[in-house]
Design a protein that fits this description.
The protein is built from 5 helices and no strands. It is mainly α. It has one domain: Globins (Globin-like, Orthogonal Bundle), CATH 1.10.490.10. The longest helix is centred in the C-terminal third of the chain and has 43 residues.
């Protein structure tokens, strides 16, 4: 059952649920495991802080998200299709259809920026 509002607790649920899906996705899991094997316990608090900052304007997240992702090798358009599809599904499951649009719009902007960096264009996902 979806939560009624976006707050730190619901963001944590969304992030946890999303990354369970990432780790089970045949396309995404190899990319994430290559970078995060043995480091998930460090990565997850950063993701909570990242999404709290973006969705609530709170927290102390600092980092070069674009630069970190541009350093990854082997990223293809298919990765963005899976990432955004999974993110949209997770956001709706956790926040409900009414509230999910806020998180989805942020995710789409992030994906668009990264797509420009990787491919020189945004793809329709």
């Amino acid at each position: 059952m979806p939560v009624k509002s976006i707050n730190e607790s619901s963001i944590r649920i969304m992030v946890d649920t999303f990354y369970v899906g990432v780790r089970e996705d045949a396309v995404l899991a190899p990319v994430f495991e290559k970078m995060l094997a043995g480091k998930w316990e460090i990565h997850m608090p950063r993701m909570y802080a990242f999404w709290n900052k973006l969705l609530l304007g709170t927290g102390e997240f600092q980092g070069n998200v674009f630069g970190k992702h541009m350093a990854l090798e082997g990223i293809e358009k298919e990765h963005f299709v899976h990432w955004l599809g999974l993110f949209r599904k997770t956001a709706v499951e956790v926040f409900g259809k009414e509230e999910a649009h806020v998180a989805i719009e942020v995710a789409e902007r992030i994906a668009g920026s990264l797509q420009l960096g990787y491919f020189g264009e945004q793809i329709e996902v």
